[in-house]
Amino acid sequence: MGIYLFFICSIIASSFCSVCLAVPASLASATDSPSSSADSLALNAIDNAHSWEFSGAMLSLPRSSIATASVGHMAFFAGGRLQNDTYTDVVDVFDRRTGKWSVSHLSMARSEIGAGSVSGRYAIFAGGLDSTFKPLSLVDVYDTKTNKWTTIHLDTPRGSPRIMDLGSVTAIVGGLSGDLQYLSKAVEYMGTSLDSAASSLQTEYPQFGVAVADKTSGVGIYTSGYQNDRPGDRFNDFEQSNQTSIFTVSGSSASIKVGLPFPSPRWGAGGATANGLFAFGGGHVFSSGDSEPSTTVVDRVDLYDAKTGQWSSNPLSLSVPRDYPLVQAVGDYIVFAGGTDESKDLDILDTRTGSFVEDLQHRPALHTLRTNAAAVTIDNCLLIIAGGLVYQGANATASVEMFNACRS
Length: 408
Prior knowledge:
The chain is built from no helices and 38 strands. By secondary structure, it is mostly beta strands. The protein is globular and about 50 Å long. Helix content is about 0%, strand content about 45%. InterPro entries: Kelch-typ_b-propeller. This is Galactose oxidase. Keywords: Kelch repeat, Repeat, Signal.
């Protein structure tokens, strides 16, 4: 049975179709990297997960719905919702080279921002919602080479666009459009010059999914989540989505094709990739009840092999069901955190073996259970989890938990 929601209440098989876009030469220029005396360091994740070190810190403001991005040795925690449900323009910045935090500001306060990196040089904070829930086209850009902020604009205003760094090109995908269609199919490509080129998802229905990208291979996947089966109607019909879009970048050409359907459609999954293995885990499904749909949180993890272009027929299981888990790649591992009040433990998938690490005497774990928090990885080896809501979602927190798996 479909889930019907009135628009103003909605705020909160082989590949058979493809579209290719000739990206402007300026978008496909060589990847820049921030200048630093530390750039020559070889930074890798420690092979033994027992050795991950824990430390804590604090954001400048307690908040949730934080947009996160990492570029070079820096991590950014931007905007979000304060305890009184107003929005903020604050950006907390952590520099791994110095181990110090600083504070900056977006050009305007907002939440539900899409965040990511462009060409190894820029941190971008795209779109979002203002205090009236209006989708925005504003993009704040931090240049790690000049240490300066600038602003540009999306062609299509959107809340919560998904950002995929595909190496020479970054794709800004989908989001909440604010029209009767509600979910956007818009795609914009951005490169070193910050010029943009427009495209569109080729899915049958507008979709709000999970975006995971491997910037080394230039492959990204947009899948799962939910779709609107009645676009343009007064009432939306949101359904669990199995639509999958495969993004690839090669030279000056970016392409999107419709891929094999997601094996287990659901809302609220999280994903990450390492060593060519894409993992999508957790989330929830709806089933028909006597009066209202019932929700079941799942522990399922679906794997996609970028080399074969196939979904695994043998899904894995998390240690506990997790809804909207925080998922990050840390070296050869993919880490699942939060999304449950049953356990503070991290589930750690070793992509070299395709299985979860089971032999940890003391599994790395969160110190504070939280929802609607932020997660980011610096240098592919330092996992940071920050902010969110604690005490059954009643209070925003400023606490930061850092799991260090780095060696030089």
